[in-house]
Write a structure and sequence with these properties.
Elements (H helix, E strand, L loop, with lengths): L1 H17 L13 E5 L7 E6 L2 E3 L7 H9 L2 E4 L6 H10 L12 H12 L5 H4 L4 H12 L7 E3 H11 L3 E4 L3 H11 L2 H8 L2 H16 L3 H6 L9 H25 L2 E6 L9 H7 L3 E4 L4
Parallel strand pairs: 2-7, 4-6, 4-7
Antiparallel strand pairs: 1-2, 1-8, 3-5
Membrane topology: Single-pass type I membrane protein
Subcellular location: Membrane
InterPro entries: TIKI1/2-like, TraB/PrgY/GumN_fam
Amino acid sequence: MKNVIKLGFAVLLTLNVATAKAQNKNTENSTLWEVSGNGLSKPSYLAGTFHIMCSQDFEIKPKVMKALEKSDHFVMEINYTDPAEMAAMQKMYQADQKISDQLSPEDAKELDKVLADYGTDLKKMDHSSSQALYALISTKAIPCPPTEIKLYEIELLQNALKNKKKVSGLEKVQEQLTSINAAYDLKAVIGQLKMGKEYEILLKKMITAFKKEDLQSVYTLFKDDKIMNARQEKAMLTDRNKNWIEKMPDMMKKESSFFAVGGAHLMGENGVIQLLRSKGYTVKPISSL
């Protein structure tokens, strides 16, 4: 489990800043939704998560835990209990080509100065992937030391394993990596790194809104194209949502399933909630269980 947490932390650092934008015109606010109808014998649940938070801000609502207890199957974006996925995660932050070899001397020098603000330098990061660079943004933006960080999905996973729930993932690490690469090449990542202070301010506002289950405000904070443009949103949110929706019906038909995905995936015209409704399911916010 320690290795799971370590690797999960690395992946979630990347996703915490990469999947925060969404267009949401729905005023229904909740971090937990019930999925029923369309031939389901038992309801399933959809939980919007905030991947990484400091322990002082961290809370999983009782209704979320109750929904997990009522479910037979716990489903995350990636199955952290799959050994093959664990191996793939270890490779995710390594690169065959050095970062410095992909940059001009001037750009490499500039990146080295930028990395100093993150407590590191190009020499230390040179053999890392773009995803490893991107993860630095969350590392800096989170206002507490690593020992005080809580991972929302990992907390749910530990509870699911304790209660002997079936565990699955909606996508493979390689699929997620393909999406990240399509959204953020090295140049884009460096541009995001330069905005470090803006992310710190943004993350604080997002956490405040998430604690209030005000997902509308969380998403509105990330509508600035400096953070995520339309192409990046398509790769990180829309395309992945549509892929997940093809897998979810079979899971829900077989057994009551609890899906835990980043909150940004829930809302919008191409969000998981709307996509499920378009397939004939009833999806409603849950205030308490």
